[in-house]
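Before relying on records like the one below, remember that each one covers exactly one chain. Contacts with other chains, cofactors or solvent are not represented anywhere in the record.
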Amino acid sequence: MADIAIRHRQGRFTLDAAFSLTQPWTVIFGPSGAGKTTLLRILAGLVEPTSGRVHLGGRTLLDTAANLSVPAGKRSIGFVTQQPALFPHFTARQNVAFGIRHLDCDQRAARVDEMLRLFGAESLADQPAPQLSGGERKRIALARALAPAPDLLLLDEPLAGLDDASARDILARLLSLQVSGQVRVVYVSHDLAEIWRLPAEVVCLETGRVTAVGPLQQVLAPHRDQLLQQLR
């Protein structure tokens, strides 16, 4: 369970969003410019909001009224951006291992292998990051974000730019996390076709405001004509 109430002013734009994460997967859905990425960056601890609070799993990560803000690296949150930035001087394996250097060598190696298998990336382990394709970089970024076993995984348009086969494969692998109950996921998208069949709750965000919350297909049913146009 997580409770979020955020207000953030940035120029003429104001993000004013309050909602709870009650399901294993929550989709943040809305058009470009709605504030979706800003919301994720605040949750990750990369942006300090004007005011607000974030409670996750019994922990208070942010409470501006109490002058409390847990640093990003201590929030137990993984974050994969639209354009994942891998360390260019590392191999894929070294990138995945970066956030678990506190483990001993055997534990670290086992966890890296587990994450590479999860995303079908075993063959990429020793490839230098600059030699990876866009889809391969996405797989390694996801493996790296999950390696420390975060409480929450933030995904910002995770399938953007991928071919259909890669997108379907990666999404199926991500959904296996729901079955295992390993991590709560917040998934940002503006693509109705991409998210339509996800077993998720949806938070609709428009111009910085929450306009609807509930079961995904129920809440987004009025957008079915848009979906049919995308699938033609």
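Helices lie at 36-44, 92-97, 105-118, 134-146, 164-180, 192-195, 216-219, 224-231.
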